[in-house]
Structure formats: structure tokens, C-alpha cells
Amino acid sequence: MRPPNANLQFVHRKSLPTRSRARSRRRQQRFPCSTLQCFAMAYATAACVYGTNLAAKPVSARRAAGPAARRPMVAVVRCVSTRQETAGLVVEQFNLKEYMEEKARKVNEALDLAVPLRHPEVIHRSMRHSLLAGGKRVRPLLAIASCELVGGDEKAAMPVACASEMIHTMSLIHDDLPCMDNDDLRRGQPTNHVLFGEDTAVLAGDALLSFAFEHVATSTFGVAPERVVRSIVELGNCVGSEGLVAGQIVDISCEGKVVDKDVLEYIHIHKTARLLEAAAVCGAIVGGGDEEEVARVRSYARCVGLLFQVVDDILDVTKTSEELGKTAGKDLASDKTTYPKLLGLDGARDFAQTLVRKAEGELAVFDAARAAPLYHLARYIAYRQN
Questions:
Q1: Which GO biological process entries does UniProt record here (predicted)?
Q2: Which long-range contacts (CB under 8 A, 24 or more apart) does 235-241 make?
Q3: Contact 306, 356 (CB under 8 A)
């Protein structure tokens, strides 16, 4: 995805006081760049040379890496864009990879404990096959990060985080069935119905869906009962006939037809974005967020959820099955309308940029340190390669 046009100023703590204004102006003229271009270049340099933490490398290592590495560009990144959605936002150094790995590990442990292998064994093996198959755990991460954003504790958000992943896994199992997308590969592994049969796969999805609500109701502690009920209602709405199912049925009815952007957006807001939105909103609810905070989290997550689908559509036509871990080009083969098909590849990328900027704008009123995971998660989704 091409980055949006907004300016970033990279501040070198030691060199800035002595750099002349004329030299600065000349450099800006010679090297004009946008917000995400500057950030991406600095971040990529840091990641390639050091990982994401430049300060962790000793001086000898920085010297060995060459002159470019001796002055860490990502020490401070200060946004000077005039756009409202990013104005005043200060991005401190943040290791998203480490954050995601830590949270995903905890989520995986919680999921493993929540759905143990027990009688009847075949259904639980089927459930666990898809639930514990890996994946980015974006929905649980959104729930936990949103809970922490409003001052809540990770433990309070873990049940809704796990529930969102159970619902998501159900949707994948059912999506892959021969009567739906008829897919044989998911997360680099055979799909559930390939291993266990269609009948067991349907039941495994049903079991995960029903257990998601039970898990929130019975495993959430230290949260006001009315907030637990609100989170259950939010999850129920996101998956029903006004949520995921609505997006699915409209998507099926539009196969082979030409649809406009409004219809396509309706499909993906309900089919994909709504569950991502619900995960984040549930996290903010159980974390103690007020109405304004929950509303901002909802708006942020809806942008990120739609962004997730736009990027999915782009990757579907630009990556191989091996790179994606699932069958590439299946939307094109089934003649579905996608964002690249409707807007063109460049148009889809431009739309993704707009969604990133809108998502970032909703975070501007929150504490910068607490907002950092969500800020970087939006960019991770925008620039992911699988």
C-alpha cells in the first residue's frame, strides 16, 4: 500500500540544535516525503539493522553497521502534519512485534485451557484443530489493546478476546465448506472439513460459536455485571443477521454481479469489519471506558476492520497461495466483486490510506503510550504481506 501524503519531522536529539535552517530547507526540498514513507523508511532501516530497538545495540555494533546506523532516526518521530486526524500525535519507539507475540502467546494459552481435549473427543479435536492453528490473533489483540487504552487490565479482556477468536474461527470453518467457498487450505493447513468431514466441521463451528458466549459469561471476573452483559450483546449482534451473516448472505447473492462501492462496503463492514469492531468495543467496555471512549474505539475499529478486508483483497491478487497460507485468487475465480476489481489496484490502495488516517484520528484524544499498540496495529494491518 502506498503511504498517504502527510509530513513527518525526524528529530535527532544531538544534531538538531546545530543544524542550520538553510541546510534543513535544502534537505526538505531534496527529500520530500510523506508521513508513512518517512516512518516506513526509518522503521525498515531499524528493523533490518537492529530489529526494532535501536537503543539496544552497543556502540561497537552501530559502528560496524556503518555511518547510517550511528544516528538512530526512529528515536523520536514527531508528526507535524496539518491534517486534523494526525495533528499533535507523537509516536514514541514501540516494538509492535514483541507486543503482538506476547499477547498472542497469552491468548493461545487461554484458548488451549478454554477448549481442552475431552469427550466426545472427535468434536473437540476438530474445534482445537482450527482454533489453535495459529494466525495473527488480530481480534484478541484489538480487545486487549482497547481495554488497556481506557485504563483496563488485560485479564479483564481475555475472555472477550478469546470469544472473538472462537467466533472468527467458526466463520472460517463455515467459510471453507464446499457449500460456501470450498477451500482446502487455511493458515497453511488442511481445512477442517478436509480432515474431519463436512458434518463434523459444521458442528465444530456451531460449538465454538455457542461456547464463545458461555466463556464470556462464566470466565469474566472483576468487571461489573452490566458491562459483561453489554459485551455479550455486542458479540451476539456482530455475528447475527445484522452482522456477519448479513455480510455473508449479501456477498453470496452478489456473486457474478456488478456491484457499486456502497454495496461492497456494506458486505465487508458486516462480513469482516463488524467482528473486529466488536472485539475492540468489548475490550473498551470491560476495561471501563465511558460512552465517548467506546464510540471512538468503535469508529477506529470499523476503519481498521474495513482496512483489513481491503488489504485482503489486494493480497489476494498480488500474492501466491504459499505466501498467504491460503488459496490465492479465489475471489477472482468465483467472480466476486473486490476493491481492486471495483477501484483498480491503485484505487484500492488509496482507499486503504484513507482508512488508516481515519483510524489514527480516533486515537488522538487518548494517552499516547496507551494508544501506541492500536496506532501501530493499524499500520501493521495496512502493510501486512499475508
A1: isoprenoid biosynthetic process
A2: 235/160, 235/163, 235/164, 235/167, 235/278, 235/282, 237/278, 238/167, 238/274, 238/275, 238/277, 238/278, 239/167, 239/171, 239/209, 239/275
A3: no
Residue given cell 476495561 in the structure block: 287
**Which amino acid type is present at position 259?**
V
CA distance 314 to 383: 11
318 falls in which pLDDT band (50, 70, 90)? confident
| 107 and 95 Cβ atoms separated by less than 8 Å | no
Q: Taking all residues of the chain, what is their mean pLDDT, rounded to a whole number?
A: 80
Is residue 89 within 8 Å of residue 46, measured between CB atoms?
Answer: no
Scan for cell 495533528, then name that residue.
87
Question: What whole-number percentage of the chain has pLDDT above 70?
Answer: 73
Q: Which three cell numbers stand for residue 255?
A: 456473486
pLDDT digits (tens, 9 = 90+) for 246-281: 999 999 888 888 899 999 999 999 999 999 999 999
Mean of pLDDT values over 146-174 = 97
Q: Say how far apart CA 137 and CA 161 lie, in whole Å.
A: 9
**Residue 164 near residue 143 (C-beta atoms within 8 A):** yes
* Of the candidates 97, 45, 95, the residue with the CA atom closest to the CA atom of residue 73: 45
Residue 154's H or E segment, with its range, is helix 154-175
pTM score above 0.85: no
Residue indicated by cell numbers 469482516: 272
Write down the residue that cell numbers 555511518 correspond to: 67
> What residues contact 322, with CB distance under 8 A and at least 6 apart?
none
Cα distances (Å, whole numbers) of residue 277 to 7, 123, 210, 270, 290: 29, 29, 20, 10, 16
pLDDT digit string (tens) for 72-92? 322 222 233 333 344 345 455
Question: At a CB cut-off of 8 Å and minimum separation 6, what does 208 contact?
Answer: 115, 127, 130, 131, 166, 167, 169, 170, 173
